[in-house]
Amino acid sequence: MQNASAVPVVPPPLVREDSLWFSDATLIIQAERSVFRVFPGILAAKSPVFHDMLAFPQPENGEAIDGCPVVHLTDSAIDTAYFLKAIFHYDFFEAWPSDVDFHIISGVLRLSQKYQVDPLKKRALRHISERCPSSLDQWGVKQWAVHPILLVNLAREVSADWILPTALASCCWLLAEELVHGVASATGHATLAPSDILLCMYALGQFQTTWTNRVLAFLWTPFSIPGCVSPAACFTARVGYRRDAEDWREDDMGVLDLWDEHDWSNLREDVCGACFAAMQVSHQLARREYWDALPLIFGLPDWDTLLARRAAALE
């Protein structure tokens, strides 16, 4: 009886990517089980890494498909496909503000950095950067339906530190199980690095106590607002709203999302004009204080430094 362990393992067949299979091209790229037939001269012209890689003479008895030498990449097949399409199909990866899927952007960004295709890298970085808030005024306007774990991991990989404050802050409000065990994505299971998990746990404690209290302090401090025409009624209303806001904190809402335009609209009906105006100013100052502190909470440089890095990366 033949030992089952001795049966050779037959690898799955190679899959040809038709949109990246040019019949007159002379180079085969293989990533995982996917193969692409492309023009080596174009790759070499776009990428210094491929230029150096392809400069080495191919051995006469080297691996070949359809008479073309094969170059094996360690990258994922899907990222390689996105990257090569961005090079060989001019309309595949259009510049901002075109609507491009996050997984395409991240695949192009990772490989354009690895293979030093700077124009593609800058284009991908702009797509990411423009969709992630980098100022308090942009918060709530440029919200991107991308899981924050994916954003954090990509930002870490390509050193896009200016994305990290808001992405890490969003991770803080994930359910504990999701924060620790990660999330499934189109390209596999993604988890935060242990150091980032610890950062988020540390920051969440500050958000739920210190910063939530500061951002909501306008509802009951000071006890008496100068110019108030009905101190007792206004203070009673303010305390009632603060009590409601305490319940909202239990819903794992972010610090900047605890009080919105709907809440202001309701408050306007219950307090005098002087109190309402003063509370708006106080609330905005607290939000600004939180925003300025956000990078420092995660051990990052201040916003001025981060935005200078952003400008340098995109120039």
Automatic annotation (TrEMBL):
It comes from the Eukaryota. InterPro entries: SKP1/BTB/POZ_sf. SUPFAM superfamilies: POZ domain (SSF54695). This is BTB domain-containing protein. It comes from Mycena rosella (Pink bonnet).
